[in-house]
## 1
Amino acid sequence: MSDCINDDTVYVMDLKGLENILIDMDGVLLDTVYDNFFWQKHIPLKYAELNEMSEDQAIKITHTLFNYKRGCKDWYDLDYWSNMLKIDIEQEKLSSDMIDRIKLKDGAIEFLENYHKNKNLFLVTNAHRKTLDIKMKKIPLTKYFKMVICSHELKYIKEEISFWFILRNKLGIDYEKSLLIEDTIDNVKSAYHAGLKSIIIGDFTPNFKNTPSFKDLSSFSSSLK
């Protein structure tokens, strides 16, 4: 039997004792359609064009490179991929066709509006600072957060346990009075080992330490006292 609780289960969480909520960006506040299309379709097409090869060849090459770096700091580094692929990744992300794909997830604004005045909200993302700036220019959310953290700037990524210890010291917060809202189970696991409890946002059921999961922030909000 799974030891998680999902949003099909009657589940009520009390946030009254919490002081801090650490929130991921992509997959929690923002839809991942933008990123998925950019890396899986747009960049391979651009690579094919620049290198005069078929789309299928370009997809095979770029996806192999991406998969090799998945879960590593380089995976999130726009400068790394610009150098590796000889493509100006930042400029490609800024194209109007791409910018229009940046969308909020259901319940994101409502959740931020409800809790930013009585909780310390922190945006904690693996996204490169350039990616963050692009997204925040399209959908300004930084006003809701006490601090915005890009993992690169702490020299680790969220999949690494060390990141969460460094983050705790930087923010000066007590993890016993904090909650992480994530969409990536590996990040939840590493945070857990640093003493930080989590919920998962996504259409899947994690099987880790009774971690509750919810389809989106609307579903999570409806479970709160």
Note: The first strand starts at residue 20 and ends at 23.
## 2
Amino acid sequence: MSTAEAPRRAIFLDRDGTLNHDTGYIHRKEDWQWLPGVVETLRRFHAVGYLLVVVSNQSGLARGMFSEDDLHALEAWVNEDLAAHNAVIDAWYYCPHLPEVTGPCNCRKPEPGLILQAAADLNIDLARSWMIGDRVRDMEAGLAAGCSCVLLRPPVGAYEDNVPVPEGVKVVPHLPAAGVHILAPEMRAHRLSRLPGGCGAHCGGKRSSDGSGLPGSGGSGCEGGPDKA
């Protein structure tokens, strides 16, 4: 019998504008500013078993604005900061290219190369994984790799306000809202499984009264019948 581990699911994350404020070519810890609710959301993703993988375009490398050592130092600092809050990023992948300088590549989003490489390295099941980012190119990369996708588009100050969203992509204002979208079905199934005679993930019961299915939502549990979620 094979002892190979089963493929894992992952959350692929863009970096600037998704995790931190995008002030342009960030490569120093002094310039890193977490967006609200991000660290807690990362902790929740990891708690239910998702690998967290950052996939980002870093054309500042090709432009000569900073070095790979600078980038690795920033990533190490972010990892330390997350560890202090019981959170983690499992892996960092970045594209160092800029087509007009280095020529074409298959890793600069919207190409899916970074996601595919991470999936091969980390034994990730792409069909059970998600891509989250604030640009349509993030969504295009995720869809090309076979992931479900969530676009972060705040009501004010969003990039690409007028760029059409690819079919099948969920749009939410920020990463914590993406966390609710992704995790609510799991939390609902967990809650139902703890009811007397709980029916678990394949119940088919109706949603809790507020529609969230999250713990503490005040929902009343399974009522039978087809799931309308």
Note: The longest helix spans residues 175-193.
## 3
Amino acid sequence: MTALRKYRRSRTGISLIEIMLAFLILVTAAFSAAGVISFGHRGTVADFRQVEAMQILVDRMNKLMNMPFASLDSFLVSAGGNEYTFKDDIEGIVLGDEVKMDKHSYRVHATLKRQAVVFDSLMELAFPNPDYVSASPSTWIFRDRPSAAFNGVANPYKILKITVSVKPVGGMTDEREFTAVSYVADLES
């Protein structure tokens, strides 16, 4: 046996090159895992912002729906039109282009619009009808009623359409805008 072979067989342990190679593999795996964790974290933050946006949307819509019809209508009267979009706070309801919630910002707008009501093909029960029994549809007699349209301003049907939209701002560019629509009728006058 040659001296070199004896030297290699008697040698135990790991060489510096093997350690460097193992370290390189470990670093590559660690960076890959960190990238996946970072990507997941960004997704979690975006999901959280969207959930928070929906909570803001429900809160603002509920607050507007709880306002008296006369108050909502007065905003349109003072604006001088049939539609108005609020971009600033109204009666304690926080709205605007950059509404701060904890560390996130949202664009929160509300729109009021007079809603026209149209009854195209309305049928009404014909009275007097001596054979009428409310529990028996076969005794009901209907007659045509002329179409009716109401502009949403005058009674008997004063209706406002409320639209609230919320969008996260300052975060990821492809975050969704959430919008809710509801209607308020004047049942007071």
Note: The mean pLDDT is 82.
## 4
Amino acid sequence: MSTKFSLLSRLAVAASLATALGIGTAHAQEKTPDDPRLFAPGQLTVATSDPVFPPWMMDNDPSNGEGFESAFVYALAEKMGFAPEDVVWVRETFDQAIAPGAKDYDFGIQQISVTEDRAQIATFSDVYYQPQKAVVAMPGSAVEEATSFADLREVRWGVMIGTTDLDYVEDIIGVDEPAVYNDQVGLFQALQGNQIDAVATELPTALYLTAVQVPDATIAAILPPDENDYGHGLIFEQGNDLVEWVNEAIAELKSESVIDALVAQYLIADPDLPVITE
């Protein structure tokens, strides 16, 4: 009996030691490319939209490192110890990105604004960019003469579903029943077709819209920030522990002015654009 008990005790001790060693190894690998908390250890799996647009990403190719968000992800990955070839991209819609539940990637990036409501169903990184809002219109639109929110409420607005632009138009400007579109293509076609007078969007998107997608359109005005929109953050599955590691890397990029340099390269607008504040 004692021999059997001794054998069982030794096996229990061995199992405990093996478990402890396994835990110790896992902890040692944390915050390295082999971190077991990664969706696929050895690589950084990042989700974005399909398609992607300048100035956020170029040529509908998030892997080329061009455009503000693509360049930002690769700078972030380097800080975290990943080689460029270890960054793997997956695609999803905006609605999928902000939906609750499991995510088959480490984090997503597609100009997702951090809000209190969204933070109830997903985990966000620290804000990496705070955009201004812009009003885009076709030449001759009534919105070109607007100087106040009261004037803005008199024109026909278009916005994309599920975005903070929709919240801004309804809650900040005070527009009743703006036209809502499922994607940017439909929104921009409505603008060109004179179905709407104005589009509210983030300034960098407005710059690309007026330069490439609808070159006849202009930025009619800049709008004040939305206090309920804290800026762009990376989105994670709710409770994902990786966010601490990612936030450390974001802080380093900020302290080294890497993000400021990317903003200057891709996102700067005309400082003389008119501003409507109330």
Note: Strands lie at 44-48, 87-91, 107-108, 123-124, 133-137, 157-160, 179-181, 198-202, 218-223, 235-236.
